[in-house]
Amino acid sequence: MSDERETRLFMISPVSNVTPDQLVRxxxxxxxxxKVKETCYGCLAEGLVADVKEVTGEIRGRYPYDVFSKRRAxxxxxxxxxxxxxxxxxxxxxxxxxxxxxxxxACGLESCDRGETHEIxxxxxxxxxxxxxxxxxxxR
Amino acid sequence: MKVFIDPPxxxxxxxxxxxxxxxxxxxxxxxxxxxxxxxxxxPPMNVTLDDVVKGLxxxxxxxxxxxxxxxALWGPLIDQADAALIMLDPPFNFGCVGCxxxxxxxxxxIRRRGIPALSVAYPGNEAEAKVSVGRIKEFLExxx
Amino acid sequence: xxxxxxxxxxxxxxxxxxxxxxxxxxSVGAKVVYPDVSYADINDSLKRFGFNPRSPQLKLMIARAxxxxxxxxxxxxxxxxxxxxxxxxxxxxxxxxxxxxDNTRLPVVTYSFTERLKAAQLLTRMEALVTIVTRKELxxxxxxxxxxxxxxxxxxxxxxxxxxxxxxxxxxxxxxxDVVKSAQLVLESALKQAGMxxxxxxxxxxxxxxxxxxxxxYGAKLVQEELTVNSKGAVWLADRQRGEATILDIGGMDNxxxxxxxxxxxxxxxxxxxxxxxxxxxxxxAKRLKIEITELGRLADSGDWxxxxxxxxxxxxxxxxxxxxxxxxxxxxxxAAAACHSVAEQVYEQQLQEIDVRHPIIEVGGTSLIxxxxxxxxEVLGEKPIVPPDSxxxxxxxxxxxSSGFL
Lengths: 140, 144, 407
Fold this sequence. Notes:
The complex is a heterotrimer of chains A (140), B (144) and C (407).
Chain A (H helix, E strand, L loop, with lengths): L4 E8 L7 H11 L4 E4 L3 E7 H14 L4 E6 L10 H4 L3 H24 L15 H10 L2
Antiparallel strand pairs in A: 1-3, 1-4, 2-3
Chain B lengths: L1 E5 L4 H9 L3 E3 L1 H9 L13 H6 L10 H16 L2 E6 L11 H14 L3 E5 L4 H17 L2
Parallel strand pairs in B: 1-2, 1-3, 3-4
Helix pairs in contact in B: 4-5
Chain C lengths: L2 E8 L7 H10 L2 E4 L5 H11 L6 H14 L7 E7 L3 H17 L4 E6 L5 H16 L1 H4 L7 E7 L3 E8 L2 E9 L3 H16 L8 E6 L2 H8 L3 E2 L2 H12 L6 E7 L4 E7 L2 E8 L7 H10 L4 H9 L13 H13 L4 H19 L10 E4 L6 H11 L12 H10 L4
Parallel strand pairs in C: 1-2, 1-3, 3-4, 4-12, 5-8, 8-9, 10-13
Antiparallel strand pairs in C: 5-6, 6-7, 10-11, 11-12
């Protein structure tokens, strides 16, 4: 059941120097008995919920701006979600897009950790109809 | 606190909610609940006709089945959430969140429940990223 | 060889129907696949296609279609399916169907599903896709040879044809009852007409709902779904074996609209949600008018549908409209014409929107004998359809023609 198994998807930011292999070895070295599978974007770790949580915490502490993670519904290698079986599932494009976004998020986190504060920029407003009218009339 | 994330399958939001000390409520757990049910054999997701019918709680029968099926999955999570974190217009919205009508409804359901919710725009550059992540951190830390 | 059917879809997994789609494909020896696309492909494809839907899954569908069109992904057929009642998806579904047809030679079928979809409903469609891919040579057959029989076990009627050397020698039909008994009856009669014995028959081809039962009973050489078989029968009867055409078969229970290129279907729709758009509705009308169905067409010919409005989508409410109209003292002719017009209009609205009508339009099936309906179809489409001789025997003719390929 959900409480027993947790499959965790770890993803390395595209600008990071951490390699999937390093990540896998780091998790193995923790000795939590968590199964790890290397992937092109990082790794999948699978085990009891409590163990995977500990692993996640440690990885986050070690690589705060390099590695991001979420829980994954399907166990590692599940044929129902296997790319070799059917071709890519819709979620694959999502992962790719989020992967590309990780450097921005890391940048934000680093800024927070440095204690920086930022003003919320005002929402850009659209040109008023009046102003637009003036411009079009001037262009005549 | 339990924080519903939207998009519910987002890795970034899941990570941030957890990082700042809360329990993310997303798509993954509710899908896992279904796919781990060995008594069902409706791959890939074990979403059943019953699920789609349960979606009627959130949308009428004239609403396409895919929307009702999605709402049947996310609706109960919104019902039990203490807060919500929403990222607007992310470039990633595939997979579980492939239907924009469902996504609109999810955002509305959050609003209708009246729980604390933060909507941040997806950042387009580093300056915006600093603002967005800063706001998320402030919101999540404020929930304690 | 496993046939790869590329699925372009939205909503299937959340509607509890993905399993049914895959089950239907498996049962006909095919496999559902998703063309691989990357995130970058999606953005490029959207720019190229020029339609940018709000729903990301529809964007993904477009990227997958572009990948097929560019030959980057290898598939044998295409199945495009989205949620029933979703407007955005309906637009994308149809435009992608058109795009695939313009850019590939892959057979394609579209379908809008509800959560109640079961594999059996898709079986004929999936089977047709597989037939088109695996039986290319057989489907290219234009002449019947030897002595063969075609049996078409339809939902309303059962038909038999005996052919020898590309000529029809015997034929008969009867209302469908017990599948085997009905077939036996018409087969005996057709053989008698042809002056032949069963022992002379070299091959049998079966089609229609009862095809498997009849195929087993008679040891048929060809047991094939009605979409491909009817198409072959239609172009043979209409002598339009080469070039393009649209085949319209308004059946007793479901309607088929098939576009063909050289007699081989490349796109088809098959509707069967509502009896209001089928031959069954005309039967009900005839019964209410207390006339034979064979008289309905002639009656309709001399009526004007405009005098008796009947615009219901449901056969039950349609008949209610009819009762009201008769109560108002409208003529039987006008009512019959209105019933024919209503069916033609619904076929146009429900089926013909899912395909690109090609010319000529060949109208076939039992309902093509109802002249009032043919007239109504012509009015609605703005073009008079061709009704070939023996148009109700398309399935049986197709069966006899194709089964001779096994001799």
